[in-house]
Amino acid sequence: MTYMMIIKSVKDYDKWKSIFDEHENMRKSMGSRGASVLRNKNVPEQLVVIIEWEDMESAKKFVETEDLILAMEKAGVMGLPAVYYLEEKDRTEH
Predict the structure, then answer these.
(1) Residue pair 34/52 in contact by the 8 Å Cβ criterion
(2) Which CATH number characterizes residue 54's domain?
(3) For the sheet containing 32-39, what is the strand order?
């Protein structure tokens, strides 16, 4: 399994989430299999988004889209997010 983990700060979570939800179909069309959004309890403006992808190529293509850059600006993302490409090596039940 391939994942992309993005760590970013946002000015307004509700505004960001609205834009994120608007782009669900775009992510899906590019190979996304779903996402988890986590919020730092100690730093509420910091989010960790983990998106599952069909393959690494799809994840990397998504990050390079002009549409994503425009959406991040519109959504109030502060600074450049940290992006990590991850491959699942093992899974346990607990």
Answers:
(1) yes
(2) 3.30.70.100
(3) 32-39, 46-53, 2-10, 77-87
61 within some domain = yes
In this prediction the pTM is 0.91
Q: How far is residue 14's CA from residue 62's CA, in Å, rounded to a whole number?
A: 23
pLDDT digits (tens, 9 = 90+) for 31-85: 999 999 999 999 999 999 999 999 999 999 999 999 999 999 999 999 999 999 9
Give residue 83's Cα distance to chain centre.
8
| Domain region containing 37 | 2-87
Q: How many domains does the chain have?
A: 1
Largest CA distance in the chain: 39
